[in-house]
Amino acid sequence: MAFGPYLFLAILEGLVQASVLTVTAVGLSLVFGVMRVVNVAHGEFYMLGAVFAWFVTSFITGHPALGFIAALVISPLIVGAIAFASERLVLKRLNYDPEATIVATIGLLYIFQQSALIFFGPNAQAVEPPFYWRIRFPWFGYDGYKLFIIAAAIVLMGVVWYLMKHTKAGLVMRATQLDRETAQAFGINVDNVSAYVFALGAMLAAVAAVLVVPIQQAHYLMGLDPLLLSFIVVIIGGLGSIQGTIIAAIIIGLSDGILSVFFSPTLAKMVSTLLVAFVLIFRPNGLFGKAER
Amino acid sequence: MADVTPILATRGLKRYFGGLKAVDGVDFSLNEGEIRAIIGANGAGKTTFVSLLSGRTSVTDGRITFRGHDITTVPAFKRVRLGIAYTFQITNIYPKLSVAENVRIAALGRVQREKGARLDIEKETRAALEAVGIADRAEARAGEMAYGHQRLLEVAMGLALQPSLLILDEPTQGLSDSEIAGFCQLVKRISKTATILLIEHNMDVVMQLADRITVLNRGRTLAEGTPAEISANAEVQAAYLGTGA
Amino acid sequence: MSANHIGRNLILLAVVLAIAFVMQFVLPTYYVLTITRMMVLAVFAVGYNMLLGYVGLLSLGHAIFFAAGLYFAGLATYHLGISVPVAFLIGIAAAFLLALAIGVVALPTMRVSFMIVTLMFAQVGFLTTLYFAEYTGGQDGLSLPHAARQFDFFGTTFSLANEQVRFNLAFGLLAIALGVSFLVLTSRRGRIFAAIRENEGRTEMLGFNVFASKLEAFLYSGTIAGAAGAAYGLLFGYVGSTFASIQYSIEVLLFTLLGGAGTLLGPLLGVLLMTTLIDRLSELTTAYLLVIGVVLIVLVLWFPKGILGTIRERWLPWLM
């Protein structure tokens, strides 16, 4: 293939990666922004989304689209419930102390990951895509389902944007993010908001995973890469800023995809990881701005 | 006296936070041995000004000199070593340590400054605690003491550093009347060996203690003078004290 | 800390070390090997404790220092044929320099940022071992050559395949690490570290150069961790990427928290308990890492001071 078409292919692949990453990262960004919590287990919610999707689709026979749609609905709900429970049982009790929360979410990471190992097994399992659509470009054939992922991500982000800007729930979340104490003074139950936001963040990660599982397989270790990438995106894109996260996700997803195609995936990861470290080092206000110190 | 070098001086000191001009060109001069009070309404720039002096906030423009040396870019901990001690507006001690241990660390801080000096840490600690009047609580856990005593502990820690300039940031806030009276006595005693810069809202305390008063308003010096001059100053009354005082 | 208290702790330390030393004569060979491994890991945890326990800084990427020691020492023997003692020193030096570089840029960041920055640097370290797999052996790792399985000392050749030799070297390193810890804790330096941990802002305003002190602690911490890594690689004759992984960074955090961060013997206790637990569990199930998650959450919710820390708080205030 000539360079031009190769680049086009790389861009398409990059867009798919960026779409999945955007949805996942926005989930993490919401949790960062509203709860001021660093959730190291975010990648495991993603993994659980894929794992439950596999369970659901294995259960439902018939046209794969049926199983897929069921998974798209059921899996995020289950993951959301798990996240809600984790928040109430563990995070709330720590009063969201930054260091303790990180350590606790690391603990959750191990519990979720190893539980998946026990119940799902060590092997990667495939899930059938809901439809087969081979797009014939002049230079190569392309899986139409991947374009569906991009479209689905755009729709999801539209929904999230609408939720944040035009609904009461979104207003409550933004208020809590801006000034927790004032929000409380206005009668907003900040604790409940935290639980729901934590669940919402987890659900977004789960949905992203359900979308991606037909083209990648479900595996109990699949949460680590998305976790690191989401971190990178959220930190570079700016904390709690959905727009920033989306832009950063697109840029990083694209460049990661392109770099991986042309160079080594390991090198791509090294570059983005270092970038995050330096953004944090040179940000004079730290991760949460004035909330620190 | 015009030809005596002030112990602390600022020239055109500015600190802007984006569009907010917290400190907007302050010329300030403090003579050795003075007790100077800085007053002003909330938002006048007092806390920022003092933050610039102690080194906790960086300067946007202007100069700060200490005993004639330019300390504008000197980091906070080095200013402490030069002889400037600072008590926080919100009590900032080591809550889990004992009162004595708190002061001991401060005394250790002085050892840092005078390298090779043979200091009896215990003696210095004792002296500071006694000067302030909390020697009987030496083994109590600092965080469990009454607020007024915690404030005194902060002053003791400042004293243990044996500073030439002691900056007290709203020291009487939260103290009862009798505690305030005791505090004023303490400040008068300390002023025999150190220059004192006091940021205060309590006008009684200010009138009692201050040799001179500097009034800040909107990041600038509004007036400067003796307590009598300041209370008679109409502009100050309008801006801060309330007319007809 | 009074002289009496210092004395008691010194005796306790001596007793613990004596018991550890005697183990090599009392236990069967298999357990001697296990204890050797534990002692080296304990050195890693002792180093980590310097940062977490003494100064109060939580690093999520300490495996990078362990791995630096491991790889620089191991690869020095593998690719350059350098003798074991010199390779050991190279490993330590590499860890020291890395700690200096990372410390200078990471320490100005605060709390959560610090945790993430250290995590990111460690991840870069891990990826580096994979990227240069042709030199490092990547995930599979490298076994060190025969020449690296022995060393000469004043004319006698000691074989590193011999359990006694390994045990005593590990013991020696542990004794030194604990000794250094003890000295730091009882010195003025240790007091300043504690002051920074208790209230950084206040300490700065008492005239202490907080950044310099933190860097000092970071250097101690990274170098000791590097020494552990170099020892591990040379004693067991193997280097591999797993030792640079995030999991390794989390494990050392776990050991230190469990035993009691800020206590002298906490890291050793934490390593002993946790490695035994993990070893036992790994025989029962492949999902033994689950216990790491459970223990972390239990600790953080109910026993943030760890075992020795809780004992110190409730019953033995003199315990270091």
**What is the multimeric organization of the chains shown?**
heterotrimer
Order of helix and strand elements from N to C terminus of chain C: HHHHHHEEEHHHHEHHHH
Q: Which radius of gyration of chain B do the C-alpha atoms yield? A: 18 Å
Q: Flag low-confidence runs of chain B.
A: none
Number of helices of chain B: 9
Q: How helical, in percent, are the residues of chain C?
A: over 70%
Largest β sheet strand count, sense and barrel closure of chain B: 6 strands, mixed
Report mean pLDDT of chain B, rounded to a whole number.
Answer: 85
Describe this structure in words.
The complex is a heterotrimer of chains A (293), B (245) and C (320). Chain A contains 11 helices and 2 strands, in the order H-H-H-H-E-E-H-H-H-H-H-H-H. With 293 residues, chain A is mostly helical. The C terminus of chain A is likely disordered. In chain A, helix 2 packs across helix 8, helix 3 runs antiparallel to helix 8 and helix 5 crosses helix 6. Chain B is globular and about 50 Å long. Chain B has 245 residues and is an alpha/beta fold. In chain B, the strands form 2 sheets. In chain B, strands 6-7-8-3-9-10 form a 6-stranded mixed beta sheet, sandwiched between helices. The model of chain C has no long low-confidence stretch (mean pLDDT 89). Chain C is 75% helix and 4% strand. In chain C, a hairpin with a 2-residue loop joins strand 2 and strand 3. By secondary structure, chain C is mainly alpha-helical. Chains A and C meet through helix 4, helix 9 and helix 11 of A and helix 5, helix 11 and helix 13 of C.
Short description:
The complex is a heterotrimer of chains A (293), B (245) and C (320). By secondary structure, chain A is mostly helical.
Describe the SSE topology:
The complex is a heterotrimer of chains A (293), B (245) and C (320).
Chain A: H1 3-35, H2 42-59, H3 64-91, H4 98-120, E1 134-136, E2 141-143, H5 144-166, H6 168-178, H7 180-185, H8 190-212, H9 224-237, H10 242-262, H11 265-282
Antiparallel strand pairs in A: 1-2
Helix pairs in contact in A: 1-5, 1-8, 1-9, 1-10, 2-3, 2-4, 2-8, 2-9, 3-8, 5-6, 9-10, 9-11, 10-11
Chain B: E1 8-17, E2 20-30, E3 35-39, H1 46-54, E4 61-66, E5 69-70, H2 76-82, E6 84-87, H3 99-113, H4 121-132, H5 147-160, E7 165-169, H6 177-190, E8 195-199, H7 203-209, E9 212-217, E10 220-225, H8 227-232, H9 234-241
Helix pairs in contact in B: 3-4, 3-5, 4-5
Chain C: H1 3-26, H2 29-55, H3 63-80, H4 84-106, H5 111-131, H6 133-136, E1 142-143, E2 150-153, E3 156-159, H7 163-186, H8 188-198, H9 200-204, H10 210-236, E4 238-239, H11 246-259, H12 266-284, H13 290-302, H14 306-314
Antiparallel strand pairs in C: 1-4, 2-3
